[in-house]
Amino acid sequence: MAGKKVAITLDEALVEALASVAEEEGVPLPRLVAEAAEPGLRLRAGRAVIREWQAEHGAFTPEELAAARADMAAADAEYLSGPGVSAA
């Protein structure tokens, strides 16, 4: 993956905490920051897809939301009980 150098300003305490975690895990600080940012970008993209779908089809009903929550809970339970997953 090609990288691009950028300059950002973060709270000093956050930078210290990130640097500490990066050192403990033996990863470069930029990689740790990128890994932390990716889930937020995926969440935003998912929300955009949902907004587009609802704009075309209407808002989700309470029943649809309940079914989606049940499906997500089942998927989480299956994933968390899989091999190599420890209950921390």
TrEMBL record:
Which protein are we looking at?
Ribbon-helix-helix protein CopG domain-containing protein
Say which species the protein is native to: Streptomyces poonensis
From the broadest rank down, the organism's phylogenetic lineage runs: Bacteria, Bacillati, Actinomycetota, Actinomycetes, Kitasatosporales
